[in-house]
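Illustration 12: Lipoprotein.
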Amino acid sequence: MVAVFLLAGCSDPGPGVAQEVRRGVPDGLVVEPLSEGPVATWVDPGETFAIVTWGSGSCPPVATALTADGPDRVDLTFGPSPNDPCTADMSPTTHEFEMPDEISRSPVTVSITYEDWPETDVLTLE
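Figure caption equivalent — predicted structure in token form:
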């Protein structure tokens, strides 16, 4: 019974604002293993984008807020995973998002903040 609970806990990315969360990187995206920070890429240009994060494969961060901040800027907040225990690996996780309707210009700046980390990452979707 405990093993079933642990498996279910590790497979669920938890609540969040991402449309989809999956292990790995989007098809066609080449990233350096263990890159320093997240990577942004278009899935469907102008409509859907993805953020690739690195961390525990069983406890990826959860996107908790996505807002438009002008016609060409998106603010995204990640919180800690609700899963526990977590594996001690460094795996990529892809988080896909629908672009807010208020975004009407390109390139789009994506500003990422973290609920449990005092850094901000700023990425660009070309």
